[in-house]
């Protein structure tokens, strides 16, 4: 495992890296010495301080690497030091993400308590394992880079590949859980079987490579049993649902009406104040709340009076001919009428 710094010919880099290394080591001792007694928030804050120390050390190394010029020996030493710091930073990132996975697993099966604590969904664990797989791949690429690889680097890269296989199996397990919660029995069954195959392959390769990680291997063995149990449950549930499907379909068809009978009108809140029934409905069932009818029905409202002239057709108006202007006719017009 790569967790030590190389000797750097630059005095400033040696001092700064040494001081930052001491700070990081002390924080790691606090983190590992009382890992179970420290609260989660405290452990995460310690990880943040460790990351800050290593990032500052790497920044100092890279600034000296830029100003090293054409000195090949100095550049090689600084590159090796930068690689070592990056490797340690990658390892601590994986440890922090594993802590987040542990926290998420503890909340996966926990029920809602009085504080309404959020319960972890399987999809969140799938995303965390995606991050772990990416971290493992980056660390493996970093260790595998370089011209002259030492034996410990080869061993560490092999260990990274085995951990990646184990994380793939765990990711597949929680992906199967998410499909199971969605009611997709066939997909969940196949994923559980695939997760079991990946985990068994990982355990076999751990034994073949003589890599001792008792905690991880014990966790993988427990996960194999869970995969086997869950795959049997999904298989049985899928068969039951398939057998009951025609029966449920016939019940739904028998409840259908071809006469177009009206449904029973639901009582609203103001109409059933004396009954202890929820007007909002059950949160697990998608039904409309029966608080008040919306949109409201049309109602008659008072308006200003409208005057209609209904006597117009019955009025006998007087003659106005005597008041009309008469045309005067000439002599010729009077002769000819």
Automatic annotation (TrEMBL):
Tell me the GO BP annotations in alphabetical order: SRP-dependent cotranslational protein targeting to membrane
UniProt GO MF annotations: 7S RNA binding; endoplasmic reticulum signal peptide binding; signal recognition particle binding
Which GO CC annotations does the UniProt entry carry?
Answer: signal recognition particle, endoplasmic reticulum targeting
Please give the superkingdom of this protein's source: Eukaryota
Positions the record marks as coiled coil are: none
InterPro entries associated with the record: SRP68 (IPR026258)
Which named protein is this?
Answer: Signal recognition particle subunit SRP68 isoform X1
The organism of origin for this protein: Cucumis melo var. makuwa (Oriental melon)
């Amino acid at each position: 495992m790569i967790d030590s710094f190389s000797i750097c010919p630059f005095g400033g880099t040696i001092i700064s890296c040494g001081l930052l290394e001491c700070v990081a080591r002390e924080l790691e001792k606090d983190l590992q010495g009382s890992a179970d007694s420290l609260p989660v928030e405290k452990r995460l804050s310690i990880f943040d301080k460790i990351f800050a120390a290593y990032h500052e050390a790497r920044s100092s190394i890279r600034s000296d690497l830029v100003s090293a010029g054409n000195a090949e020996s100095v550049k090689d030493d600084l590159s090796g030091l930068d690689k070592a710091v990056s490797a340690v930073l990658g390892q601590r990132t994986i440890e922090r993400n594993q802590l987040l996975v542990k926290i998420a697993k503890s909340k996966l099966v926990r029920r809602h308590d009085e504080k309404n604590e959020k319960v972890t969904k399987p999809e969140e664990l799938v995303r965390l394992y995606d991050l772990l797989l990416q971290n493992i791949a980056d660390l493996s690429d970093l260790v595998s880079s370089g011209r002259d690889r030492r034996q410990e680097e080869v061993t560490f890269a092999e260990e990274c590949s085995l951990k990646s296989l184990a994380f793939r199996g765990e990711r597949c397990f929680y992906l199967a859980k998410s499909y199971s919660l969605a009611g997709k029995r066939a997909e969940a069954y196949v994923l559980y079987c695939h997760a079991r195959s990946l985990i068994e392959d990982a355990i076999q390769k751990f034994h073949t490579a003589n890599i001792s990680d008792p905690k991880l291997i014990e966790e993988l063995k427990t996960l194999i049993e869970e995969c086997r149990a869950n795959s049997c449950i999904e298989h049985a549930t899928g068969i039951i649902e398939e057998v009951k499907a025609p029966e449920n379909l016939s019940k739904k068809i028998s409840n259908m009406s071809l006469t177009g009978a009206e449904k029973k009108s639901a009582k609203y809140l103001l109409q059933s104040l004396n009954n202890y029934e929820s007007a909002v409905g059950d949160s697990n069932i998608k039904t409309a709340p029966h608080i008040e009818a919306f949109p409201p029905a049309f109602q008659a409202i008072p308006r200003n009076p409208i005057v209609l002239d209904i006597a117009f057709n019955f009025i006998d108006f007087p003659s106005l001919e005597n008041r009309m202007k008469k045309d005067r006719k000439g002599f010729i017009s009077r002769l000819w009428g």
